[in-house]
Amino acid sequence: MQASYPSTIASWTDRINGEIIWAADPNSLAAEIIAIEQAIGVNPQIEYSMPFGPPVTYASESAKISAWGLGLNNPYLSLELDGFDVDWQQSSNINGPDYMIQHPPFRVKYDTHGYFDGTCMTVRATGLYLVTQRQQWEYRPRGWCRSACWVNGNRRRQGFFHYDAFPQGSDYYGQTYNGEYGETQTAHFEHMVAGDVVRLTLGNATDQQQLQCFSSTFEAYYLRNL
Q1: What pTM value is reported for the model?
Q2: What is the pLDDT of the chain when averaged over all its residues?
Q3: Residue 37 belongs to a domain
Q4: What value does the mean pLDDT take over residues 114-129?
Q5: Assigned domain for 163 exists
């Protein structure tokens, strides 16, 4: 017997005591049940296509759908660190002309899938990511500071803030129009594979050997598989 589902919803007229129940009646119900099971599949509460790792068993298919709808299966890393100094001499010597140093250890805000090892981010799920980083620096009359995002030792993005990009009296104008701080930031999409290592470096090329970074943040969010 041909089922109505999934192209349409089956219709049914309630039977009452005393009526004759024909074989077509239970057969039609069985056809609909089989059609539903074929459409949903076996063990619908199990998610086999996780971004990485083994299948996950949920309490129900509804719970599985809700987890995807809420983005709970997408890896997300959020790091932050406040109030630290970047030394000019150290940054100018450690990487030669790059004038960069490794970012000090972050404080973990969110790490839903264990990406951060205390120093770097190691990708666990191959796919497309949105990667952002931002720093706020103390203001100086001259020079520049910068930050860079690296993947497997290759610089992907970098942000500069030139304190002396303003006219005479740059200290006054810069503080007035930039909220009394310098700012570096980058944001980009990056296709990465499991095992890729992401790190940040910072640079100080101002007139002050110890340049304070008021705050620094880093975020990486898994968008989709490619």
Answers
A1: 0.83
A2: 87
A3: no
A4: 96
A5: yes
For the chain, the straight-line distance linking the first and the last C-alpha, in angstroms and rounded, comes to 42
Structural tokens at position 36: 């539903």
Q: Model confidence over 133-181: pLDDT tens digits?
A: 999 999 887 888 999 999 999 999 999 888 877 654 455 555 555 556 8
* Tokens 């450690």 found at: 94
CA distance 71 to 82: 28
Per-residue tokens: 58: 């949920």
Written as one string, the DSSP assignment of 136-183 is EEE--SSEEEEEEEEETTEEEEEEEEEGGGS-SSHHHHHHHHTTTEEE
CA distance 131 to 147: 14
In a domain, 15, yes or no: no
CATH number of the domain enclosing 101: 2.60.120.40
Give the domain range for residue 200.
Answer: 76-224
Does residue 130 lie in a domain region?
Answer: yes
